[in-house]
Amino acid sequence: MRIAWDEYPAAASFDELIAPGGSPRPGASALLEFLSALGPQELVTRQKAAEVAIRSMGITFTVYHEEGGSIDRAWPLDIIPRVIALDEWRRIEAGLRQRARALNMFIDDIYHAQRIVHDGIFPRAYLADSVNFRLQCVGIDPPQGIWAHICGSDLVRGADGTMYVLEDNLRVPSGVSYMLENRQVVKRVFPEVFEAAGILPVDDYPSQLYDMLRALAPAQLEHPEVVLLTPGIYNSAYFEHAYLAQQMGCELVEGGDLAVGDDDVVQMRTIDGWRRVDVIYRRIDDLFLDPEVFRSDSSLGVPGLMRAWRAGKVALANAPGAGVADDKLVYTFVPAMIRYYLDQEAILPNVPSYLCCEPQHCEYVLANLDTLVVKPTNESGGYGMLMGPQASELERTQFAQLVRQNPRNYIAQPVISLSTTPTLVDGGIEPRHLDLRPFILSGRQVQVTTGGLTRVAMRKGSLVVNSSQGGGSKDTWIVDTSVDHALARS
Amino acid sequence: MLSRVADNLYWMARYLERTENLARLVDVSASLMLDLPQRLRPGWQPLVSITRNEEIYGEHARDYSEKSVVSFVVSAAKNPGSMLTSIARAREIARSVRDILPREVWEQINELYLYVAEHAAEAAAKRTRYAFLGHVTASTQTLTGMFEGIFSEGDALSFVTIGRNIERADMTSRIVDVRAAAMMAAVNAEELRPFETVLWMSVLRSLSGYQMYRLKTRARVYGPGVVRFLLAEENFPRACVCCLRRVEEVLHRLPNSQALLRRVARMRRAIAHTQFEALEQSDLHGFIDRLQLSLARTNDELARIYFVGHSAPVSTITAISA
User: Is the whole-model pTM more than 0.80?
Assistant: First the structure.
């Protein structure tokens, strides 16, 4: 039985694969034809094959339970890929590069002359209240002037087809390993289509990451020691830490493996004695990095690490303090930053935002809570938000109280009706909402992953894509449309 | 190699080996009960003695019934030496060194843990016990095969090998000690005499050593012969001397191992030169005590040279010798 795409339920949202009327979007025709010929039953069979592959490849993420300890769950993947045409992707890629450049310049400026503050573009008061601004980082010159070496920006598409940046994750963004593994799995279950459809390969991210990290080594060493610092097996991203360490061929270390001597050199404890460490890809938040400087109760970090970093004896990626730009209030200034530092207009727009710390905005927000999403400025993972339209009257009243108590802590945005894509649900195909997280590496040059991690809300109508809250994922195809068209014609 | 990783690999191997040994112990104790007349059965208490958890057992149950003892040894979460605790610890540690373990090894450990957690109750019932224990033993043997077959030689494998053999030597010596004591000290020793062969055969079987014993000695099964075989047989993989030889072999490849090598060689010579036929039971007990103390010191020495500064899981051996 063939799949009839014209019966695919059209929603008010933009669909990534199917235009109104059932015709394919650019780049999607070969895929839709392939899926259609496969039929729904075969699709279910292949979905099962993918789940078996995920189990046997051991692709998991960790959920922590009070009673059961940490539990490894199989990574959720929906096998129907999400497609972006190459020419659109080129524009997105350029937008992300531009953004990463401006953000790094902003961070470097904030920890030095603060020109952007003196020139009246970024208000001093916002900086003073920023929880991720680190006084300890003022005046430091990290290698190449780069602070956020690894950035994961979340993109969403609105009903009119516009691709917006929703947030920039500059602290310890995760998900890239799943992007790579999703491709491995989908190649296994859909080998036929990869031969023809003009799908760009996902780049060799671990090599790029390793080369970028290596180039940060303080001395010009031929074989600098690069390590990945993990909080350990209870962290929800532990799979990714182990995966990247393995792929890069570097040591996966915990805080207890490292020590800093009086000479400010970082060493790791091996069976053959102490060995010098030159570059640390740290997947631990700032506040847990060094109990001498930040939280003294942290057992995850390394006493003296900040001392070593400030002395230039070790490179940290991302640099401590980079999170100052990972703040939803700062986010609202990114288009202005791009104008200020690069003298360019932003290629990718922000979602329009209201700052609750601005009295006029705040008044508007409080009066329109039923149509807005209100977000805390320094949370991640989708926690602590108010989804106005879905909330009860009581929840809205309580949230209004929170906003009044601490307006600096909130911004509000109109609800973006996230775009949808065909997704396998109970043996049928239905539209589900999704977003996209590409990863941007900033070193001597700026590199963007080909596509990114597509996350999809598996519940009907839901806009929550986080895997910790029941979200799934998809392989992301960047398709060269010249090849795709030729294929569709033949 | 990172000290923490070496430490973890060592303990992972010990916990896996412990899981297998516990399965063997329960299996052979059960079959021994079936072989002896009821009034002569040693009961289930020796199982608790071998795992050296009498104190915790007191909180677990009042009597030494089959059901209480087996569930204590196999599935009790409160027993730090139970099979379930051991495999759970092995799995937790394996997760932390996942980046260097072959994927198949991690999956096998994970599946064994899930199996034990789900089926542990089957060990308590006579009818299902055999299949359950057989599966556990086969799974751990598969793991041993994987380490042999798909894991590159090097520091990582060295620490796995040391962990497995130290644990194995420790458990073999405990089994010999407890069973020999039970046999000699029995009040109705005279009555037990006709069944002595059966008892020693069960000891050999618990270590899969019966056939190898026959092939090696070509003699009937008798106490001092079995003790000699299990402690001093160069070529039987579960005999203490053989375990120590394997530890020595890999120690040669590790840095800073001279002092350890000397200690292990001393232990090996002491066992090889003992005349087991001439030992009284009390002498044997003293001998095994010293052997275990020396194993515990080896464990501490390993920690001092290679793992120091990292919190290691509680060592049962160290806890006892302290």
Answer: yes
